[in-house]
Amino acid sequence: MSKALKIMAALPRGWPPAHSAAWVLLQQVLVRGLVAVKFLLVGRMLGPEALGVAGVALLAVAIAESLSDTGLPQAVVQGGQAPAPHELSALWTALTCRGALVGLLLAALAPFLAAQFHLDGAVPLLWMAAALPLLRGLASPAYYVVTRARGFQQLAGVEAANACADCAVSLACALAGAGAYSIIIGLLAGETLKSVLTWAMLGPRPPLRLRWSGIGHYLGFSRWIWAGSVVNLLLNQFDKVMVGKLLGPAQLGAYQMSSKLAQMLLADAGIALSQYLFPTFAERHRQQDGSALRLASRLLMLGAVLLAVAVATLASVAEPLFLLLLGPRWIDAVPLFRVFAVNMAIGALIALLVAYLRAVGLPRAATEASLIQVAVLLVTVPPATQHYGAIGIAWSMTVGLACAASWMLFRMLRRA
Questions:
Q1: DSSP class of residue 14?
Q2: What pLDDT score does 2 carry?
Q3: Whether the Cβ atoms of residue 276 and residue 24 lie closer than 8 Å to each other
Q4: pLDDT, tens digit, for every residue of 235-266?
Q5: How far apart are CA 378 and CA 252, in angstroms?
Q6: pLDDT tens string 182-237
Q7: What is the distance between the alpha carbons of residues 38 and 251, in angstroms, rounded to a whole number?
């Protein structure tokens, strides 16, 4: 974990500039590469069922965090003025209390979740996962100020250290026989280090005191982020809940691995670029010269061509890829992976569209697109599930994503 920080520090000052997209690229190569190593090696060692057990715990965390998303970090990045010290204190108070409440709720619901998802003896694992929201809430809000200022070099150092700790600890625990716990323990180690580094490396540091006022002006923007998070909760976790509840942890593990692998190979590129583009679009939008729209249009056209080629390539090599990376126990996930390749390619384009719409002050458009996707799912999921099972659910998700992307593109062009 310290090695990643030393690499960042050893690079010449000012090259590339701290706000350069090269730092986002370096961060994603390191972070996503380490995440890939973690999931592929741990998945190969433990098999689908253990991965599915850990997946249920992380699914519960994702649901709780989405329902309680304040939208405040995004509001800080998009706002016209940088937050004052007293506003940072209020942000830290709000985010820490949110993390503590979410953690307590998850801990209380652990026995219920274990019963619902057929996880015999996994209550301690769910309790352990409940600490993740609190650790994330304790991080310094200076992280969002640095994001606003496009300090990508510092952010890359923090995120790379987090990923190094997560990967190293998870693999060590898996080799020691910790089973599904190894995934959660690694995440806890990474999030703890990240929270510490946000206070040690990033500024300005907020005064460490509880404050309950001073951020009301962020709420107008953030409420649409919250609304989008609630809708996206249904969109992103509904399929996993269905598979886990109806088919058990082994099938959930296969479903999640195929989705995760497709995401790492396709969608993560768009997500990585959106981390750079959100503050970049926001800065260009403040100039009111139309450069934000021109940049977004060029990137979308280029991305569509590259992703189409990538999807065709991955579909043709899916079976040998799974045999090479994960072994024969995972071969049943190949048809799902082919569907998720299309799904994640559309998701990569959506990440760019969301970054643009939020940066120009239209978070509502992304929420509207999510509602359209929900409507599509309500119509298509029941018959698709009845006739095609898990693959039917995956195709329904893909059709919904395509409709959502079309709506966001329409809103983007109409604004022009």
A1: T
A2: 47
A3: yes
A4: 677 777 777 776 677 777 878 888 888 988 88
A5: 21
A6: 999 999 999 999 999 999 998 888 887 777 777 776 766 666 666 667 766 776 77
A7: 20
Token pair belonging to 94:
């709000």
| Phi/psi of residue 207, nearest 5 degrees | -60, 135
What's 178's DSSP letter?
Answer: -
Contact 166, 1 (CB under 8 A): no
Residue 415 has pLDDT above 80, yes or no: no
Query: In terms of Cα–Cα distance, which of 6, 51, 65, 49 is closest to 237?
Result: 65
pTM of the model: 0.69
Distance CA 362, CA 358 (A): 5
Helices (H) and strands (E) in the chain, counts: 15, 0
φ, ψ of residue 117 in degrees (nearest 5): -105, 20
State the angle between helix axes of 21-67 and 219-247 in degrees (0 to 180), rounded to the nearest 10. Answer: 70
Closest-CA residue to 301 (of 293, 290, 311, 312): 293
Tokens found for residue 157: 């150092």
* Unique residue bearing structure tokens 């790379």: 160
Contact 242, 394 (CB under 8 A): no
Report how far residue 332's alpha carbon sits from residue 239's, in angstroms, rounded to the nearest whole number.
18
**Model confidence pLDDT, tens digit, residues 150-194:** 888 898 899 999 999 999 999 999 999 888 899 999 999 999 999
Contact 363, 357 (CB under 8 A): yes
